[in-house]
Amino acid sequence: MKRTIPTLMLPIMLAQAGAVQAQELEQRVDALFAAWDKPTSPGCALGLIRDGELIYERGYGMASLEHGVPISPTTVLLIGSASKMFTAAAVLLAEGQGQLSLDDDIRTYLPEIPDYGDTITIRHLLHHTSGIRDYYQLFGLAGEYPMHDVLTNEEILSVFARQEGLNFRPGTEYGYTSSNYVLLAMILERATGKSLKDFAEENIFRPLGMEHTHFHDDRFHVIENRANGYSPRAEGQFAFNWSSNYATAGGSGLWTTVEDLFLWDQNFYENKLAREDLVDRLLAPGTLDTELTYAASALRQSRRIDDGLPCELRPVPGAAVLGHLSLQPPQHRSEASGGSSGRAVPGGRTRARRGAGGARRG
């Protein structure tokens, strides 16, 4: 069964933007999205950032095929696993307020989790070294489809409470799973007395002026100016997709806009939030026997920047969520884009520093 979530972030590197005329740059970027830039197709919104300025923003294709509403940089999109960077930031801010410690045993806050004989810490969850099993797989084994069935964090916790073991001993291996970040959201709520949605609003989104961003933990909540999600059908047709109809926050669940992501991007250069070392802590890699490329919610990679705007777009079977904000701090350049169909992802030729969505051991 195929699935698509109404968000796809496509990393595009402005490697030689300073040497390219603005009009030529725009034409080259537009050409990458030409296949979706029509009134009969879902599409995406794009924002290119350089030296603290949003130098180019544009929408391609449609946010709603039913109502003929085009996508724009102000369209609200679900950013999938890129939500994890905001969950991690919330946890680190709570630690800065003295409400928890990354070295706390998670059973201090979640006594429902069995005692496996080895301590699982909040830090293990942040860096995907906990050994906790993947809830998508667990529900799948039970005959449910978690991307379409409506799940809550509490239902997911009840499944973890029945697990008799881990995939590996905490801290000995890396294993990416959204389960870790769902648990972080629940730990945050029990430690602070506030839901992830409310804590992030108070401590991240409001201070940064991200007025169109929120964690979506209520599937009945109306989102103004949101994009619908679509799955591809034969002969260029599309079907409405309900994959975003869930109430799970932490590993995903963040709705935002390209323009709000620009405000978040700028905080990596001039931090306005309450913890002075927040950015350093977000980017600090985890460790096993060697340093991980995965920091707190973000994949740290350096790649060559040598040939302008190479980007390979290809179909995604089953279409996983690929939330993306690409940062190049030394060059002060970034990119953010989002779409209403998962029909394209960056390929191996893309020059990018990828965000949440995967990692490998260093």
Helix and strand layout, with pairings?
Layout lengths: L21 H11 L11 E7 L2 E8 L1 E3 L4 E2 L6 E2 L5 H13 L25 H5 L8 H7 L11 H8 L18 H14 L3 H13 L5 E2 L13 E4 L5 E4 L12 E3 L1 H10 L10 H6 L29 E2 L10 E4 L4 E7 L5 E2 L16
Antiparallel strand pairs: 1-2, 1-12, 3-4, 5-9, 6-9, 7-8, 10-13, 11-12
Major β-sheet strand ordering: 2-1-12-11
Q: N- to C-terminal separation? A: 34 Å
Average pLDDT taken over every residue: 77
Largest sheet: 4 strands, antiparallel
Continuous helix count = 9
Order of helices and strands: HEEEEEHHHHHHEEEEHHEEEE
Shape: globular
The helical percent reads: 10-25%
Rg measurement, Å: 20 Å
**Unreliable stretches, pLDDT < 50, 5 or more residues?**
1-17, 300-324, 342-362
Strand content: 5-15%
The count of DSSP E runs of length 2 or more, i.e. the number of strands, is 13
Q: What class, by secondary structure content?
A: alpha+beta
Question: Could you write a compact summary of the structure shown?
Answer:
It is built from nine helices and 13 strands. It has helices at 22-32, 84-96, 122-126, 135-141, 153-160, 179-192, 196-208, 258-267, 278-283; strands at residues 44-50, 53-60, 62-64, 69-70, 77-78, 214-215, 229-232, 238-241, 254-256, 313-314, 325-328, 333-339, 345-346.
Give an overview in words.
Strand 3 and strand 4 form a beta hairpin. With 362 residues, this protein is α+β, with helices and mostly antiparallel strands. The chain has helices spanning 22-32, 84-96, 122-126, 135-141, 153-160, 179-192, 196-208, 258-267, 278-283, and strands at residues 44-50, 53-60, 62-64, 69-70, 77-78, 214-215, 229-232, 238-241, 254-256, 313-314, 325-328, 333-339, 345-346. The model is unreliable at 1-17, 300-324 and 342-362 (pLDDT under 50). It is built from nine helices and 13 strands. A four-stranded antiparallel beta sheet has the order 2-1-12-11, covered by helices on one side. The chain has a three-stranded antiparallel beta sheet with strand order 5-9-6. Helices cover 24% and strands 14% of the residues.
